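Thread title: Can someone regenerate the structure for this chain?

I was given the following input by a collaborator and told the matching structure tokens would be attached. They weren't. Posting the sequence so someone can regenerate them.
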Amino acid sequence: MQKIILFTVIMFLSVLCKVNAQGVAAIKNSSEWHYRGSKPGNYEMGSVAGAEKNNQTVYKIKSIQSKTNGFGTMMKTIQPDEFLGKTVKMSAYVKSENVKSWAGLWMRVDYYTAAVLAFDNMQRRPIKGTKDWTKYEVVLYVPTEATDISYGVLLNETGQIWFKDLTIEIVDESLEETGQNKGRDHKVISFETKAKAISNEIKAITDNEKNALKAAVELIDKDLEKGVVTKEQANELKMQKAKVHAATIEAKVSVEQAKLNQLVQDKVDGKVADEKEHRSGGRTIILGNNPNPIGSQTEINITSMKVYNGQEDKEERQSKRTTSQLVLATGLNNVVTDGSVQKSDFRYLGSHFYEWGVTYNTRIFKNDNLLHAKYGLSVIYNNLRATDNRFFAVNGNQTNLEVNAVAQDDSRFKNVNLVFPMHLEFDFTKSKERDGKTYFKTHDSFRLGLGGYVGTNLKSKQYINYDIDGYKSRQITKGDFNVDSFIYGLSTYIGYKSTSLYLKYDLNPLFKDNAVKQNNVSLGLRFDFN
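Best answer:
Regenerated them for you:
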């Protein structure tokens, strides 16, 4: 009874699921190279004429646009039967000329279109510039669940590459995998995912054959219109084509149906592992940003307060249209009086600020990574240390610096502000293409932010430390000190990746009714942790 219920669920899924074959079905097990990529029309691809004279076949990929944001690839897809459970090495000789971005060999091991089990495209050890013939290698482990292996050579953006002598061979298991997605670390695929993938494949087979039959019938109809065949001959040809495609559907679907039946039986027998049971790649704890690939590891990032379950999860989340960052900033703090910070009443090095907060970064245009709206919430601590043994004293609506009659060890005035920062951010991080998908990662190149902030003063305090004859004491005074409660100002930052030089300036005066207007200004370092 359990088996019947499971089989019914599977068939129901096969009706509901939409196929996302990504063109793989059309090129499976073909001995010919196929031209793919995010912008295949921007590249000239194929064999090099005349190379056969030297008893070798050379292929090329050449950009035909002066500028392009995408890649072109020559690829093949094969059945993995002889490679299942083994380590496979793909190698080829590549020559490059004026490759501005990068190029590389690539290989991907798939479970239908549902999961990428292993992948490497050499993006982290790229081919760049102009280089003579050099041998390159990609090594991956092929899990036993694999249904397809796709491989090829790609060129990202502009330049030209040639490749030859491409081979795929089984190698010793001790050879380390090169991919960012390693086959030995892949997660166990759940029963539901496998069932859905097989159902999708059955639908894809049916749809492809129906489309092929439709195209064949349209050609026959054109021949009928031209008088090339008679109506009786056309009907006979259509019948023959229908029988061929029906037989193909029956043969291919029967193979997938057998897999589906076996999957149901394995589920009933308890042989299919739950999705939560997977090979753990371990955990790593990070402070700051981690530029290295984490494979299947779980990354616990303390500074950004995020947990990433493997490299794929990390890249997907960091490439969303809206991402979040933990912001930390610190540096020097002072006041501008009459348009200048020279001859300040406050120590330049002793006065400081620090800020912590959370920001959201939204890509303004869906398919362009340059402009972002950055907004959030921050708590800012502005500290001022007066010179010449002085401290702040309130006289009615005036707050003035006065000389202390007693020698001070230190005097510090602190304002705590809650602000809402808003910036237009120019992020020069380039988008990346992989498997036909564009990733718009942020905070991975030069950045410039222009904007400001509004908020309120939460509290003001003055600390005066004394050291009299070896006896230390501290006087803490809380109050409003006539500080302007409405905070607003301008801010900007420029930097690389997570680190920026940060400048902010309060447009509101520090003390709202003082005769001499003083505006807080800060300069320091800012860190935005993804």
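Confidence is low (pLDDT under 50) at residues 1-30, 275-280.
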